[in-house]
Amino acid sequence: MSNEEDYGIYLVTDPVLCGARGVVETVRLAVDGGVHTVQLRDKHASFDQQLSQLEQLAAVIDGRAKLVINDRLDVAVEAQRRGIAIDGVHLGQGDESVLTAREALGAGAVIGLTANTEEHLAAVAALPAGTVDYVGVGVIRPTSTKPDHPPALGNAGFAHLTAISPVPTVAIGGVLAEDIADLRSAGAAGVCFVSALCAAEDPEHVARSMAESWKE
């Protein structure tokens, strides 16, 4: 697996779980600890608020991790236009088309797509090569951060979908730190965490431990 396909420890932000410390400081600490990829996810923030957050996150990340935004292709396009160091976008099945995103952001952008079934993966395989960089596969276990999630796959279900995926897979949803080694052995290109990092008393320490597990 090349470095370009290594999403490693992948932080998905949650403004509520980050609490008084805030998203930007949580991300700074987590990246200090070794987080590889950060996804700004804030379902309730306005266009301008998300754009401002991206600018702040790009500053604290300072090229040390990939930065993508959840759902908001329009914000990603504007951030790119303004020269903010954003890598791309992660889209759900009901969001903008990945073909639209690829055309809007260009060949060098990172485009992720949620894909939880064999049918989703077959649809990705039918796209022109290079449209999607990775798929987020889950949930691994039931999780309160995404109450409308599909049935949990477990590590075995994740391994099955990874084996047939045409692009690298990232595990998401109810993942525990102790799952990192098993998921990597199953072929994961990254492992996503929300509450384990956002709600951590010391995100840098937790991220460092997770990053060590990823390297093993």
Automatic annotation (TrEMBL):
Binding positions (4-amino-2-methyl-5-(diphosphooxymethyl)pyrimidine): 39-43, 70, 114, 146
Binding site for Mg(2+): 71, 95
Keyword Protein transport: no
Entry keyword set: Magnesium, Metal-binding, Thiamine biosynthesis, Transferase
Biochemical pathway: Cofactor biosynthesis; thiamine diphosphate biosynthesis; thiamine phosphate from 4-amino-2-methyl-5-diphosphomethylpyrimidine and 4-methyl-5-(2-phosphoethyl)-thiazole: step 1/1
Reaction it catalyzes: 4-methyl-5-(2-phosphooxyethyl)-thiazole + 4-amino-2-methyl-5-(diphosphooxymethyl)pyrimidine + H(+) = thiamine phosphate + diphosphate; 2-[(2R,5Z)-2-carboxy-4-methylthiazol-5(2H)-ylidene]ethyl phosphate + 4-amino-2-methyl-5-(diphosphooxymethyl)pyrimidine + 2 H(+) = thiamine phosphate + CO2 + diphosphate; 2-(2-carboxy-4-methylthiazol-5-yl)ethyl phosphate + 4-amino-2-methyl-5-(diphosphooxymethyl)pyrimidine + 2 H(+) = thiamine phosphate + CO2 + diphosphate
Enzyme type, top EC level: transferase
GO cellular component terms, A-Z: cytoplasm
Short name of one Pfam family: TMP-TENI
Classification via HAMAP family: TMP_synthase
Sequence similarity: Belongs to the thiamine-phosphate synthase family.
Name the UniProt record assigns to this protein: Thiamine-phosphate synthase
The organism of origin for this protein: Corynebacterium stationis
Gene responsible for this protein: thiE
